[in-house]
């Protein structure tokens, strides 16, 4: 009885605090039928249903981790437009951070990133099933930030434009060798061989990606120009004229970045060009995402994923023997990409739920929508960095960036 009275008192205090300081368009519904308004709105945008009393501790300290955990474990339900649900989640987390004096963020974690651990993490995330990804990605299954040159492209066009933007940036020419680290389902190497005439090697640690990418290369009749490997980047040998890494270095680990870039340098031929395209933290100290969503991400989405700030990327790149020649921010492009993915996910919600089950459906739903908000609001970022070996004459690039835009960016062929 004492515990119940204490919990009721804490809940009343929490509701009063949210009403006064946050004024969120939320109807709170408890398992016993009680309802509360958390803001002065005639029509709440979101209904938050607490399905059992054991969920209240998650609610009383509603960090992004706690709210996401409660949702995934089906202790709470969230009804409303997905964009409104995510805004409310951030609003509740901000209120909790204010009450806690802004100390909800955890100390940044560091992982060992052995080859076995990295392979297991990659396969956990990417081997859900190819059919799962087909339901919400573009037809080429490009699982990275698209490039909306004009802002009104459909997702498929924007993804092709992103690939062409990258390949133009690195000045890929016919007959050159290209290594794609983290090749996904093969879209970039296929485009590089078909449109740019390159000879390509794509590597992945995902069995599903390897299988489908290999089948796509075979179907395109490009076995003589593209090789797909199930391989760790630390095990690659040889020399390549061009190297791309798109959406992969988030799995490397911050402590391993100098070695990762040094490996990239060793694999570059003289005069070669590399490009790293990856998600970054906005915290200058490369700490956790504001209001702490990192625990949820590590448990359910990207095991051992770590995000460095762009400053750390450039510093570790230099430590690895590479000099940055071009740095481009694509944060708004990724926000738009994620909105497309989240909308596709919602459109196919019934099929996805049946395919992967309720828990995994909730994980991916909250992950895609949450990331869309994070990139829109500047809580996460993403950069493309083009580089060459340091301490050499920089004669590969023109003296201006005009070459990147000299001809129309490619359209689907």
From TrEMBL:
<dbReference type="GO" id="GO:0008825">
    <property type="term" value="F:cyclopropane-fatty-acyl-phospholipid synthase activity"/>
</dbReference>
<dbReference type="Pfam" id="PF02353">
    <property type="entry name" value="CMAS"/>
</dbReference>
<keyword id="KW-0489">Methyltransferase</keyword>
<keyword id="KW-0949">S-adenosyl-L-methionine</keyword>
<feature type="active site">
    <location>
        <position position="371"/>
    </location>
</feature>
<dbReference type="GO" id="GO:0008610">
    <property type="term" value="P:lipid biosynthetic process"/>
</dbReference>
<protein>
    <submittedName>
        <fullName>Cyclopropane-fatty-acyl-phospholipid synthase</fullName>
        <ecNumber>2.1.1.79</ecNumber>
    </submittedName>
</protein>
<dbReference type="InterPro" id="IPR057206">
    <property type="entry name" value="DUF7884"/>
</dbReference>
<comment type="similarity">
    <text>Belongs to the CFA/CMAS family.</text>
</comment>
<dbReference type="GO" id="GO:0032259">
    <property type="term" value="P:methylation"/>
</dbReference>
<keyword id="KW-0443">Lipid metabolism</keyword>
<dbReference type="InterPro" id="IPR029063">
    <property type="entry name" value="SAM-dependent_MTases_sf"/>
</dbReference>
<dbReference type="Pfam" id="PF25371">
    <property type="entry name" value="DUF7884"/>
</dbReference>
<feature type="domain" description="DUF7884">
    <location>
        <begin position="19"/>
        <end position="92"/>
    </location>
</feature>
<dbReference type="InterPro" id="IPR050723">
    <property type="entry name" value="CFA/CMAS"/>
</dbReference>
<keyword id="KW-0808">Transferase</keyword>
<dbReference type="InterPro" id="IPR003333">
    <property type="entry name" value="CMAS"/>
</dbReference>
